[in-house]
Amino acid sequence: MWKKACDTAAKCIAEAKEYNKQRWDKEHMEPDFREGDQGLVSTLSFNNLKGPKKMRDSFLGPFTIIKLIGKNATEEDKFPSRKKNPTPPEIVEVEDSPGPVKKIIKARKIRLDGKDQRQYLVKFKNQPAEKDRWLAQYAITEGNLHLRRFRASRRS
Questions:
Q1: Which domain of life, per UniProt (predicted)?
Q2: Could you tell me which of 48, 98, 107, 147 has the fewest CB atoms within 10 Å of its CB?
Q3: Which value, to the nearest 10 degrees, does the dihedral of the CA atoms of residues 135, 136, 138, 144 take?
Q4: Which domains does the chain carry?
Q5: How many Å apart are CA 41 and CA 106, to the nearest integer?
């Protein structure tokens, strides 16, 4: 009887060990991350998020994995639009003005890149009205002189 009870107990313990091992292995698998994969970032350690904790997202992302640091640690590209060494914008060839400026006709204020910018409609010497262009103050040759005349003509 004693022997039978010991065998049954040993069998139950072996089954429990096997069951626990399967559960442990299922939950604690090593992640299969590679560079270029998409991954989520846990917000558990973020202390700068606003609002109640239960309403916050548990994870942010997905982000592209740049580098593997350890088995379960990665470096992500959190800001894909921002680069360490951003490339400068392409150089645009500025076409030469059709000639010397005759006078400034009009002024307007437009919004470029989130800033207000004043532009002036410039008439060129010996050119038809189709060649008139809107230019910024810095792009007008002898701009200060022509602007002074333009402002004086508007006052009178």
A1: Eukaryota
A2: 48
A3: 90
A4: 33-81 (no CATH), 101-155 (2.40.50)
A5: 54
